[in-house]
Design brief:
The protein has 408 residues and is of the alpha+beta class. The chain is built from 13 helices and 8 strands. Helices cover 48% and strands 12% of the residues. Strand 2 (143-147) and strand 3 form a beta hairpin.
Length: 408
């Protein structure tokens, strides 16, 4: 069935159904074992492989570069659909799609050609940027240093989401004079180790654990200046989280509706003979579904702002890109505050429409809230209303890409 027939609304373009059609059977296969993977804590290596084979990782590349030529709103609509199948996979591929976005918007022709070819061939790129413990805000403890034979990379990272599934890892590091750079290393390089030690209560299938780099040899072309990357990256990465949340909402709504329809046991003090005919239960189902619908619509609207920033970058108009990026950051922040509230409430309400059996571990209905709560904790929403208000009242732009760490 199409999105329209399912009641989720039209896609972001006239061609969206054609674009999505080859991927939907893969999404359906992924969804079949989503609960079993969650209960057994099985990492989705096989499922990532299906997406690679289908060319999903290359969906943003232009057709002439081996991709699908998807616009940014089309990409985010696809990410919502994937997240409805299993939000772990979207989160695991978040760094890859961010890296791909940097590639398609790159002004370096050689860099764009090299990485477009690798992505078109199915390669996945993971991330290794966040540092924990005594890490500082303004510099990375991980360093890339020049030696007589080239460059070597040393350091340790956490929250390295997707890197265990990836052929390449994009590593944030400090170079000479503490200049921030990205270092792109092959995941099978000597000295690279990725461990699945993520112990969070949500998004447990993303392998968001530790990566260490010990005397990893890199070439100069593997080092990319951090300040030359796509400016709208902050809004892009935030919107991936929001698309994932919208997909979580869809999955929760669909699962809830199916369980209410199948439920035969009901309470003596219910408002109908069975759950499927109880107006109060149906009201809960409707609230959950409406929250998911609204969240998806909000995400796709914010994705239009990202598309404007991309178009300005491609046109080479730096002032237009700066202005469009500022607005994209604000729109993503406005979306974050609302979508987060909608989905956290919706994934709690699920249990109000079902009995105590809904809390059984083999149902895994708690995964919706756990995943939503975990996603919502990555970039604290408590600061967003202030930032939005400061923009509205004083015209203050959203702060630049944030970092976390110890203040010097």
């Amino acid at each position: 069935m199409t999105q329209i027939e399912n009641g989720w609304g039209a896609g972001p373009s006239l061609d969206y159904e054609v674009l999505a059609a080859p991927f939907r059977p893969v999404f359906a296969r992924i969804a079949e074992e989503a609960v079993a993977r969650e209960v057994d804590r099985r990492l989705p290596f096989t499922e990532i492989g299906w997406l690679k084979e289908a060319g999903f990782g290359a969906v943003r590349l232009p057709r002439e570069s081996g991709g699908s030529g998807a616009s940014l709103p089309e990409l985010f609509a696809l990410l919502i659909e994937l997240s409805a199948a299993d939000s772990n996979l979207t989160q695991a591929l978040r760094a890859h799609f961010g890296f791909t976005e940097d590639v398609v918007s790159s002004r370096d022709d050689e860099h764009r050609r090299t990485w477009s070819a690798r992505i078109a061939a199915g390669d996945i790129v993971g991330n290794a940027w966040s540092e924990i413990g005594d890490a500082k805000q303004q510099t990375f403890s991980t360093r890339v240093e020049k030696n007589g034979h080239g460059w070597t990379l040393n350091g340790a990272k956490f929250y390295t989401t997707g890197s265990l599934f990836a052929e390449w890892i994009d590593v944030g590091a400090s170079a000479e004079d503490d200049v921030s750079v990205g270092v792109i290393v092959a995941s099978n390089s000597p000295g690279v180790a990725v461990v699945d030690d993520w112990d969070g209560f949500g998004q447990i299938g993303t392998a968001s654990g530790t990566a260490t780099f010990t005397d990893v040899v890199v070439e100069a072309e593997q080092i990319v200046a951090d300040n030359d990357r796509f400016r709208y990256g902050q809004a892009f990465f935030q919107l991936v989280h929001l698309a994932t949340l919208a997909g979580v909402g869809r999955a929760a709504a669909s699962d809830l509706a199916a369980r209410v329809a199948a439920r035969t046991r009901h309470y003596t003090n219910g408002a109908g003979p069975r759950s499927s005919q109880d107006p109060q239960v149906l009201q809960i189902v409707g609230r959950v579904r409406a929250a998911a619908y609204a969240s998806g619509a909000i995400v796709l609207k914010a994705a239009e702002a990202l598309q404007r920033a991309f178009d300005a970058r491609l046109a080479g108009d730096e002032e237009a890109e700066r202005l469009a990026t500022n607005i994209a950051d604000i729109e993503a922040a406005q979306a974050q505050t609302v979508v987060t509230d909608l989905i956290l409430e919706a994934t709690t309400l699920v249990f109000d429409a079902l009995g105590a059996s809904a809390t059984r571990k083999d149902a895994a209905l708690d995964r919706f809230w756990r995943n939503a709560r975990t996603l919502s904790s990555h970039n604290p929403r408590i600061y967003k209303h202030r930032i939005i208000g400061d923009f509205a009242v004083n015209g203050t732009p959203h702060p630049d890409q944030w970092r976390i760490g110890r203040v010097a």
